[in-house]
## 1
Amino acid sequence: QSVLTQPPSASGTPGQRVTVSCSGSSSNIGSNTVNWYQQLPGTAPKLLIFSNYQRPSGVPDRFSGSKSGTSASLAISGLQSEDEADYYCAGWDDSLKVVLFGGGTKLTVL
Amino acid sequence: QVQLQESGPGLVKPSQTLSLTCTVSGDSVSSGNYYWSWIRQPAGKGLEWIGRISPSGSTNYDPSLKSRVTLSVDTSKNQFSLKLSSVTAADTAVYYCARETVILIKIAATWFDPWGQGTLVTVSS
């Protein structure tokens, strides 16, 4: 079981807004920044959000990140079929001295 | 455009050493701005951080793998490498290399971008 906890699955219909949560602790999310990665089927992960809410160049503004206390969230608005993927949160843990990944959330577009 | 490409044997026997190399193009492994990292993903499972190396050669490893992992950098070839000893079937995974941004000012901000395409390593006799 991952130290960063994500729901294993999420779903939505095209055009909807969905959120994916990531729950941690004071030594990781509570102390440091959170990143989100998108992994399309059969491909390598891609950076989606860094430093809690920053989007790399090329990432649509439909994707947004937020953090509060020891939890973080990824929101996807205007859901599209191509958003169907696995989403992972990640960040540094001060106690374990490791980069932690959440267990991943499989997003299905119905 | 920065690109990373993993290479190495796709099949390793149990108890032997897994060796992978990541070739970097569009950036220099000796530049001081980034770390160079390895992450793996067992089939159907999530991502696992293995460790990172700085251009100066300083390393951080996941404690659960630390005794078996060695990372190195070859600036002449613009490559960095992973060696994982005494492998078992549990080490079977897709292995990714990635460039890691690490900012340590009061808090730790660290992210991986870009990633290599990944290479599947199977541990089997």
## 2
Amino acid sequence: DTAVSQTPKYLVTQMGNDKSIKCEQNLGHDTMYWYKQDSKKFLKIMFSYNNKELIINETVPNRFSPKSPDKAHLNLHINSLELGDSAVYFCASSQEGSALGTDTQYFGPGTRLTVL
Amino acid sequence: DAKTTQPTSMDCAEGRAANLPCNHSTISGNEYVYWYRQIHSQGPQYIIHGLKNNETNEMASLIITEDRKSSTLILPHATLRDTAVYYCIVRPYSGTYKYIFGTGTRLKVLA
């Protein structure tokens, strides 16, 4: 069974559209993340949710809105897509609050977003 | 900014040990060193982590210097499937749950 899954795997869309990426984890973790990896391969955290509460919100345009309906899901909605949003988006999860330093993150396979 | 520095790339012969260095000279006393790798645009994969003692698991060994300012990830018998970008991360201990990925080391295992 896939531990962290994302849909869709590929997303091609026009500028100005609104799109969503879904993430689900079946590991029973209480913390989930969204990362963006741009064309230069830099991997940067965007958001983190712990028990459905936003705990990390990096400098991300407010066109990006994460939503966590429950602990196992963290979706990413993007409004008014721009060319610069083209990237691979990775979802991850971990179990915070366990023994110090053991919050291993498990990543999904990524969603490649292309904005035309 | 990432708190670690790593060589941009390395080559290793298949079957030989791959030793990947990482410098983290500003690490503080309660920060852990984590290693992840990313194989060809897949999601990053956890390898190993440590605080100050050397660690070993089924994937790799982690050697941390006594002053904790640097570490080395060792893949004892590299295979072609170990070709990947390897990230050394020092995790801030502030409750912000944030990992900061640097540029990593691109390891190429040669047949």
